[in-house]
Amino acid sequence: MGRAARQRRLSRPACSLGRVPEPRARVLLISGSLRSGSTNSALLRTALAVAPAGVEATLYAGMGELPHFNPDDDAEGLPAHPAVAELRAALHEADALLVSTPEYAGALPGSFKNLLEWTVGDASTYRKPIAWVNTSGAAAPTGAADAHDSLRKVLGYVHAEIVEDACARIPVARDAIGADGLIADDAIRAQLAAVFAAVSRALRP
Ligand SMILES: Cc1cc2nc3c(=O)[nH]c(=O)nc-3n(C[C@H](O)[C@H](O)[C@H](O)COP(=O)(O)O)c2cc1C
What we know:
- The protein is of the alpha/beta class.
- The chain has a single domain, classed as Flavodoxin domain (Rossmann fold).
- It has six helices and six strands; from the N terminus they run H-E-H-E-H-E-H-E-H-E-E-H.
- It has helices at 3-10, 39-50, 82-93, 110-118, 145-157, 186-203, and strands spanning 25-31, 55-59, 96-100, 129-134, 161-162, 168-169.
- Strands 1, 2, 3, 4, 5 and 6 form a six-stranded parallel β-sheet that branches.
- Helix 5 links the parallel strand 4 and strand 5 (161-162).
- The longest helix is centred in the C-terminal third of the chain and has 18 residues, at 186-203.
- The chain is globular and about 50 Å long.
- The site of flavin mononucleotide has 14 residues, from helix 2.
């Protein structure tokens, strides 16, 4: 969906019978980590839990099912692998994306880069507003800067629209994740609320 259509959908006028509730912004959350105890995934699960009333957040959970990207498998007329079709449908349905990724060996994790490569063929991130949160703490000397530089480069290549105001470094220590898989820390939750607010602002006309 183009920006104009999205903005129309998010700003329907009030009807004569009363105010029509503001449509909710659909935000797809994508973790770049497959690790079960992942701080990035925990932050996004927590984001799901604290999403405000104006946001319909969905956590994408299919990265581990995606096949290795091969242009031969993405040729015109070929049916997409079910996991790829599911990813693309989720991306197309989303008004905006929020990602959280670790840095591996000075770059994006291969599985996450693989996911991004599957978005090229059908332009599913073209002009899609996207923000990231970065969980790296003091122990990461560069603050995962190389991964995020790489992410910025890839997103530029696929013509996504980076919502700069919404991108935030929110350090998450491994012991901050509770038995429920969520982060209880109020400061972190407040930062996530601010991220959603910035994403929502970016979606308004
Ligand atoms: C194979 C591997 C390579 C890593 N390379 C880097 C790196 O280059 N830079 C960095 O800051 N952290 C690096 N790390 C640390 C991870 O980014 C860090 O543990 C992060 O919290 C993992 O995210 P997760 O908790 O969501 O799994 C690496 C970790 C692994 C397992």
